[in-house]
Write a structure and sequence with these properties.
Layout (H helix, E strand, L loop, with lengths): L17 H25 L9 H31 L4 H5 L5 E4 L3 E3 L4 E4 L8 E8 L4 E7 L5 E4 L12 E11 L2 E7 L2 E11 L2 E6 L4 E3 L5 E3 L3
Antiparallel strand pairs: 1-9, 1-12, 2-7, 3-6, 4-5, 4-7, 7-8, 9-10, 10-11
Helix pairs in contact: 1-2
Length: 221
């Protein structure tokens, strides 16, 4: 026997957005402000009435706050638009190669790495690590080196497996470590997300970077 399914009415009310919540709070505050202003006027001392300019001043201050809230909401909307927060613009990131200081993907072909040695350094060392954080190689570079091709082989010349790797440049002066900076490389974007008003790009290496951390961009091969 088939039991008829009972009809369940579900609420379609959407949760208020942050902007709607701020607007609602502002309206509530303004109504409260008017009530307080009215009560103040009713209970003032007839022999020493409040100066009307004080009312004007208080209204002007509240108006300034209201305008500032509206301005902030507008700036937030503009920022979201400029960073590609709508679905159509997010889709434009997919398949692009972006350069960022993060883990990169190695697929058997040499990877161009960009490094930033400290101007005061007298020695620089490139440290290669795999996805698990194990150090695979430490290679001394000229202190003037800013760009190099990493072949993806171990110190013995054996090819490394495809996967996610990272490169860090250590700068030394007189034998003392003065900085450690993650090298940047171009990596393919496989997903774009919006999180708390920020566009996050998920790279083929598994790293997630914001659009603000992107140094360069080019069409994916």
């Amino acid at each position: 026997m088939i039991t008829p399914a009972q009809s369940v009415t579900q609420s379609t009310t959407q949760p208020p957005t942050a902007a709607q919540s701020r607007a609602s709070a502002l309206t509530s505050d303004f109504e409260t402000f008017l009530l307080m202003l009215t009560a103040q006027a009713r209970n003032q001392d007839p022999l020493e009435p409040l100066d009307s300019s004080e009312y004007a001043s208080q209204l002007a201050q509240f108006s300034m706050v209201e305008q500032q809230v509206q301005t902030n909401d507008l700036l937030t909307s503009l920022a979201m638009a400029m960073t590609g927060a709508n679905p159509e613009q997010l889709a434009n990131w997919i398949g692009m190669d972006v350069r960022s200081a993060s883990a990169f993907q190695f697929d058997g072909q040499p990877v161009t790495l960009f490094v930033e040695p400290e101007p005061a350094a007298d020695q620089t060392v490139l440290v290669i690590q795999n996805a698990e954080g194990a150090v695979l190689e430490r290679k001394t570079l000229p202190v003037t080196e800013t760009e190099l091709d990493w072949a993806g082989v171990d110190p013995s010349g054996n090819p490394l497996p495809s996967g996610s790797y990272s490169a860090t440049l250590e700068s030394y002066k007189s034998g003392k470590l003065i900085s450690r900076k993650l090298a940047s490389a171009y990596t393919r974007v496989v997903e774009a997300q919006v999180a708390e008003g920020t566009v996050l790009l998920i790279l083929e290496s598994g790293a997630a970077v914001s659009t603000g951390d992107v140094i360069g961009i080019r069409t994916g091969a």
